[in-house]
Design a protein that fits this description.
Alkaline Phosphatase, subunit A, 9-stranded mixed β-sheet, globular, single chain, alpha/beta, 4-stranded antiparallel β-sheet, 13 helices, 2 domains, Arylsulfatase, C-terminal domain
């Protein structure tokens, strides 16, 4: 072999090894995650999901660049339980954050109308109701894979001992409200006359910049307070929508305020996306966008339509929420899935997408959607979606009914059945033919009712569901 040929082969071999190493590094690189959680944003509260009154160009761009789900659900129709399911990856009987508060205890007429007492909310003395420290949060799981973690915004899972800094996050604090927001732990160096969403966005971008400088993968949990009440939009956006919708009698004044607040949420998301692009992190970052539960009641319920129900109800409008996943060049742009998914799926999915091991000896109730998102399958392995909602509230003596009460709900094979614990009765909807729950059909499908009852009972056994306890204060005739 000539000397020239020897050096040529050596050079080619060296170049090939370098290319393989570079390719290996690209494959092994851990993707970042930005998880944006809106508050009380209904299924019809985005332009991309069909509401033409909404101005959400940045979210709509995310929608076009990723995969969205048309049958996405919250784990609960209220804030704290759904957030506990997201962070813990577990159903309510496991994490035991059943309700925001026990309002029935201070409402004599409601308490005396209840046959049963619901299970107790998990509480820690001095820290209130919230998520136990023995739960392994998604942030803790990612930290075991060398991720930097942050959480600025609404926490709603306990104070003091149960706060953000003790739940796997390297940095962050809770912010509640919009203008004159409150912080926990107290942050004395912040100007709380600013809009909380702007502060959350700024703090999150600072975290992302610092993580990049440290050459660390990151998980940024971004739970905005928008569009939760109080209805406090920015003045310029309120003026904009008042002028735009002047003379439209179908839209109420509260709905105009919500439209203005959605525009602020959209601005914040747009700033986060622009920061990723400016920092050259767009290709290496998974973006997840969803809401904690359905929309609260407004004049015409334009943010839940065409579905029945609102926040605080297990009708579709109370639990259906938007879901968007983006990972440039990995998740197909403009793709859509009709598969039913729910909050507990987010934990195992983020672990799957980031190559993070599941915590040992820790149960996760959701499905890993990685193969679905990456186009390797079109279906999940799920048998059923289950809800337990134990919130007794506002008994109406004249109508002899609660505004909300203990129900267990199962969706399976295109049907949705609700068990009314108070009356031991069941209602059934055929969502395949009637997605808007206009016709109760239990008499038409007795075999399906029985099948769903059996599946629900299996779920109760599997999750160590707490059976109803007789209420000693019950005095209802």
């Amino acid at each position: 072999m000539s000397r020239f040929l020897f050096f040529l082969l050596l050079t080619l071999a060296f170049t090939s090894c370098k290319a393989q190493d570079a390719n290996s590094n690209a494959i092994d690189k851990k993707p970042n995650v930005v998880f944006i959680l809106a508050d009380d944003l209904g299924i019809n509260a985005l332009n991309s999901y069909g509401n033409e009154l909404v101005e959400s160009p940045n979210i709509d761009k995310l929608f076009a660049e990723g995969m969205h789900f048309t049958n996405g659900y919250a784990n609960d129709p209220t804030c704290a339980p759904s957030r506990a399911s997201i962070l813990s990856g577990q159903y309510a009987p496991r994490h035991k954050v059943y309700r925001v508060a026990d309002r029935y205890k201070k409402d004599k007429k409601t308490l005396e109308a209840m046959k049963f007492l619901p299970p107790d909310i998990n509480k820690v003395k001095g820290s209130g109701a919230g998520l136990s420290l023995d739960k392994i949060t998604i942030a803790e799981a990612l930290k075991s894979n060398d991720y930097k973690t942050s959480a600025y915004g609404k926490w709603h899972l306990g104070k003091n001992e149960l706060q953000i800094q003790n739940q796997g996050f390297d940095e962050g604090f809770e912010m509640t409200g919009h203008y004159n927001f409150k912080t926990s732990p107290q942050q004395d160096d912040l100007d709380n006359s600013l809009y909380s969403a702007d502060v959350i966005t700024e703090k999150t971008i600072d975290f992302i910049e610092n993580a990049k400088d440290a050459n660390k993968p990151f998980f940024a949990y971004v739970p905005y307070y928008l569009v939760h009440k109080p209805l406090e939009p920015k003045a310029e956006y309120l003026t904009h929508f008042k002028q735009k919708l002047k003379g439209n009698k179908d839209i109420g004044p509260d709905e105009i305020k919500v439209l203005a607040m959605i525009k602020s949420l959209d601005d914040s998301l747009g700033q986060l996306m622009e920061a990723l692009k400016t920092l050259e992190l767009e290709d290496d970052t998974i973006v997840v966008f969803t809401s904690d539960n359905g929309h609260y009641k407004t004049e015409s319920n334009i943010f839940n339509q065409p579905y029945q129900g609102v926040k605080g109800q297990t009708l579709e409008g109370g639990i259906r929420v938007p879901y968007i996943f983006k990972w440039k060049n990995k998740i197909e742009a403009g793709s859509v899935s009709k598969e039913p998914i729910i909050h507990v799926d987010l934990y195992p999915t983020i672990l799957g997408l980031t190559g993070t091991s599941k915590p040992e000896n820790y149960l996760l109730d959701g499905e890993d959607l990685t193969d679905l998102l990456l186009g390797k399958t079109k279906e999940t392995d799920r048998r059923a979606l289950i809800w337990e909602y134990t919130n007794y509230a506002n008994f109406n003596v004249k109508r002899q009914e609660f505004a909300s009460q203990w129900v267990n709900v199962i969706q399976m094979d295109g049907f949705k059945m609700t068990e009314d614990v108070e009356t031991n009765s069941f209602i059934l909807y055929n969502l395949t033919d009637d997605p808007y729950e206009t016709k109760e059909v239990s008499n038409d499908y007795p075999e399906m009712v029985q099948k769903l009852k059996e599946e629900l009972e299996r779920w109760k056994l599997n999750t160590e569901y707490e059976q109803p306890r007789l209420n000693p204060d019950y005095k209802r005739n």
